[in-house]
């Protein structure tokens, strides 16, 4: 009888499960997939025994379930020894991603999948294996594995194929986009030197990378200004495309006169809780009514005390001067939530309501129609001819771009809802996980060349 630890989606052990019995819908078991690569860029693939009840004679990487009380890495080493007779050393590999899966295709799996990559150039002999689970093994190049998958001869529940099976397109035909706050940025509201150095090195080698944020370029550039990005950056949740090197607004979406009139009528609380971002020539000004404010809005104003483009005006009409393009309200959840319920009814603009990444306060952001991170990212993808989209995020406003991407990775500190739909979970923002992921992707690409 094989017993597993039973986990919830927060990766907390909540009980135990006997293999072969029905898994509760809110319970998950831990599994490992182990990809073994040689110095020629080939991967060791195994063909399942004809005796297997599921996917007999199908090809896959080494893998299996983690036993009760067993560490994930230990299980990976054990499975490799059991299935193919290889004794690997822990230092020869690394965990590249974690996936939380309810389904894999049409198959309910309810698992937490730790995916490992090991480099190995030694002999392989099934005579050294301790089980008869594998019929044969073969070193394969990427194109061979892809062909098996197309022919239906690979185990279809292996979702990590997308990580390993990208060819030269990983470098040249893929657009990588990261959220800023809570994802690329650390908790001190800054980018680490490590992140800056890695991204600048990779973009210099041709990696297509940009970021998407709710911040304005004026707010972002003191943080991101050292990044040498060739692509436009997506700011104001998709409402403004900007140049990170110069701070110039390249494209911007604006409210119509009808929408400005509606906003004035609907947002009677705007003087207390909010500000309006208006374009005056080449500058964007964030305007608020001088007077009594929520503590949260006062905190925002105080932070930008020395910024002349964050300034008070006397009347509501003055809030919407120039070319208005974005409205923001900030306060306690119980204060802002009713306003959100009121304005979200109109489908002519986009509304985003969520908790701040760093503080216990809630933000309501309103921008013109079709201005979301996801829609603007897809516009960039099409405009520049990218074939593949990989995104990184942590918050609710990242979910639409996750759904639009070919691969989507949640940082370890991301919200549970974001992790649930991610291709995989990487390290935390405090660990520079996005930059390290990109670095590893490029190293893997160069390691296998054009095999």
Could you please describe the fold and organization of this structure?
- By secondary structure, this protein is of the alpha/beta class.
- It folds into three domains: 3-164, Nucleoside Triphosphate Pyrophosphohydrolase (Alpha-Beta Complex), CATH 3.90.79; 169-252 and 372-448, HAD superfamily/HAD-like (Rossmann fold); 257-368, Hypothetical Protein, Haloacid Dehalogenase-like Hydrolase, Chain: A, domain 2, CATH 3.30.1240.
- It is 29% helix and 31% strand.
- The protein contains 16 helices and 23 strands.
- It has helices at 72-84, 142-150, 161-164, 169-172, 180-184, 193-204, 217-224, 257-266, 270-273, 295-303, 316-319, 333-343, 373-384, 399-404, 416-420, 433-448; strands at 3-7, 13-18, 29-37, 43-48, 59-60, 62-65, 93-104, 107-119, 134-140, 174-179, 208-212, 233-235, 240-242, 249-252, 274-280, 283-289, 310-313, 323-331, 349-355, 362-368, 388-393, 407-410, 424-425.
- The strands form six sheets. Strands 17-16-15-18-20-19 form a six-stranded mixed sheet.
- Strand 7 (93-104) and strand 8 form a beta hairpin.
- Helix 6 runs parallel beside helix 16.
- The longest helix has 16 residues, at 433-448.
- The protein is elongated and about 85 Å long.
- 41% of the residues are buried.
How do the helices and strands line up, and which of them pair or pack?
Layout: E1 3-7, E2 13-18, E3 29-37, E4 43-48, E5 59-60, E6 62-65, H1 72-84, E7 93-104, E8 107-119, E9 134-140, H2 142-150, H3 161-164, H4 169-172, E10 174-179, H5 180-184, H6 193-204, E11 208-212, H7 217-224, E12 233-235, E13 240-242, E14 249-252, H8 257-266, H9 270-273, E15 274-280, E16 283-289, H10 295-303, E17 310-313, H11 316-319, E18 323-331, H12 333-343, E19 349-355, E20 362-368, H13 373-384, E21 388-393, H14 399-404, E22 407-410, H15 416-420, E23 424-425, H16 433-448
Parallel strand pairs: 3-8, 10-11, 10-21, 16-17, 21-22, 22-23
Antiparallel strand pairs: 1-2, 3-6, 4-5, 4-9, 7-8, 12-13, 13-14, 15-16, 15-18, 18-20, 19-20
């Amino acid at each position: 009888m094989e017993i597993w630890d039973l986990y919830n989606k927060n990766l907390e052990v909540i009980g135990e499960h006997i293999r072969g019995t029905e898994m509760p819908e809110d319970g998950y078991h831990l599994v490992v997939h182990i990809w073994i690569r040689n110095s020629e860029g080939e991967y060791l693939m195994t063909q399942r025994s004809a005796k297997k009840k599921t996917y007999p004679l199908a090809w896959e990487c080494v893998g299996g379930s983690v036993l009760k009380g067993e560490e994930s890495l230990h299980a990976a080493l054990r499975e490799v020894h059991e299935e193919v007779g290889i004794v690997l050393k822990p230092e020869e590999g690394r965990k590249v991603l974690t996936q939380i899966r309810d389904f894999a295709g049409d198959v309910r799996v309810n698992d937490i999948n730790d995916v490992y990559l090991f480099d190995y150039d030694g002999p392989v002999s099934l005579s050294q294996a301790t089980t008869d689970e594998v019929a044969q093994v073969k070193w394969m190049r990427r194109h061979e594995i892809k062909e098996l998958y197309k022919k239906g001869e690979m185990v279809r529940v292996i979702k990590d194929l997308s990580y390993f099976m990208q060819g030269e397109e990983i470098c040249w035909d893929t657009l990588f986009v990261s959220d800023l706050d809570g994802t690329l940025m650390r908790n001190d509201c800054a980018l680490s030197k490590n992140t800056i150095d890695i991204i600048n090195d990779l973009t210099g080698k041709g990696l297509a990378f940009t970021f998407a944020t709710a911040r304005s370029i004026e707010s972002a550039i003191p943080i991101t200004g050292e990044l040498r990005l060739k692509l436009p950056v997506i700011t104001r949740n998709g409402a403004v495309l900007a140049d990170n090197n110069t701070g110039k607004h390249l494209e911007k979406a604006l409210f119509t006169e009808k929408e400005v009139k509606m906003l004035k009528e609907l947002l009677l609380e705007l003087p207390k809780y909010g500000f309006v971002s208006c374009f005056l020539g080449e500058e964007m000004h964030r305007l608020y009514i001088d007077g009594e404010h929520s503590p949260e809005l006062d905190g925002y104003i105080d932070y930008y005390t020395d910024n002349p483009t964050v300034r008070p005006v006397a009347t509501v009409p003055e809030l919407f001067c120039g070319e208005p393009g974005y409205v923001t309200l900030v306060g306690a959840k119980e204060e802002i939530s009713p306003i959100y319920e009121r304005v979200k009814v109109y489908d002519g603009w986009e509304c985003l309501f969520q908790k701040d990444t760093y503080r216990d306060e809630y933000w309501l952001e309103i921008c013109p129609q079709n201005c979301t991170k996801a829609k603007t990212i897809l516009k960039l993808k099409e405009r520049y001819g990218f074939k593949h989209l990989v995104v990184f995020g942590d918050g609710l406003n990242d979910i639409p771009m996750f759904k639009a991407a070919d691969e989507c990775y949640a940082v370890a500190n991301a919200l549970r809802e974001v992790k649930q739909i991610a291709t995989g979970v990487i390290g935390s923002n405090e660990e520079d996980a996005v930059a390290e992921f990109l670095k590893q992707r490029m190293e893997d690409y160069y390691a296998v060349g054009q095999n």
